[in-house]
Amino acid sequence: MTTADPDEAAEADRRFRRWMYGNLDHAAGHFGLTVTGPPVFGWRDRSISSAADSPDGIRWLRVVSEQTEWAHGRGWTGNTDANVLTGIPKPQVLRVHEWAEGDWRRQRAEMMTYVSGTPCSPTDTAPSGLDPSGIWWKGLQQAVRRLAATATDRINADQEKVDQRVRAAFGEEVVIRIRNWETVHGDLHWANLLTPLSVLDWELWGKGPLGTDAATLYCYSLTSPALAQKVRDHFPVLATSDGRRAQLYVAARLLHRSGLGDHPHLTRPLRSLAQQLLTSMA
């Protein structure tokens, strides 16, 4: 078995990032924008984004790059599809441009409205001392309720996906039947929330287990007990049977991510939460 050379891997990462900078410049030229930066990279450098000037004012420019076989479907068009959502503080996609890089890669550029604000965290998990205001929490509650009541044919997670994640994480004998469904954001973590409140990254929204968004935010807050308690206080669904099922599914999904190297510091609290849930649901 050959071990990857860390220096070669680092150089490959640097080359890919330079290539993504070029994609951002290409998209800016297509839309007639001037990138004002600094660019921000998304999960595993899959996307690059930046503020940009336009003749009509400041915009947000995002370019996502994907292998051709995956460059389609709900995750590919989620931000644009989310334009139908109303009454939720979020960016709107104004224009889209796609292009191919040979037959191995496809890029999608989205020019969006610019929303001012500061991310609650530079990472998915909660930073130490984060303490949003009461007005912020009220706005988030309203946004989640309005989204939950929105009809859509998009799917974030179905029973098959729930079964797959839960059994992979906790064993084949564990079966969690979802009884109620609603429209969810699907990735409601602290880096996707701004203050003043705006909700970013709508790639994965669609129907999912009731309570998914509250459960997701709660799981990403487990390393900050006081903040985790505030999530529970503001989202009573977490104390219901639906909410417990959603927490178990989300914990399984995030444990899968931690197995891939993401947020390893969440592994222990997620497993502790899951054990509590499995015991109470037995």
Q: What structural keywords apply?
A:
8 helices; Aminoglycoside 3'-phosphotransferase, Chain: A, domain 2; single chain; Phosphorylase Kinase, domain 1; alpha+beta; 282 residues; 11 strands
Summed up:
The chain is of the alpha+beta class. The chain has helices at 6-31, 74-81, 134-148, 159-170, 212-219, 225-234, 241-259, 267-281; strands at 34-35, 40-41, 47-54, 57-67, 93-101, 105-113, 118-119, 181-184, 193-195, 198-199, 206-209.
Structure description:
This protein has 282 residues and is an alpha+beta fold. It folds into two domains: 108 residues, Phosphorylase Kinase, domain 1 (2-Layer Sandwich); 164 residues, Aminoglycoside 3'-phosphotransferase, Chain: A, domain 2 (Alpha-Beta Complex), CATH 3.90.1200. 40% of the residues lie in helices and 20% in strands. The chain is built from eight helices and eleven strands. Strands 1, 2, 3, 4, 5 and 6 form a six-stranded antiparallel sheet that branches. It has a three-stranded antiparallel sheet with strand order 7-9-10, with no helix packed on it. It has a two-stranded antiparallel ribbon with strand order 8-11. A hairpin with a 2-residue loop joins β3 and β4. α4 crosses α7, α5 packs antiparallel against α6 and α5 packs across α7. The longest helix is centred in the first third of the chain and has 26 residues. The chain is globular, with a radius of gyration of 19 Å. It starts with 5 loop residues before the first helix and ends with a helix.
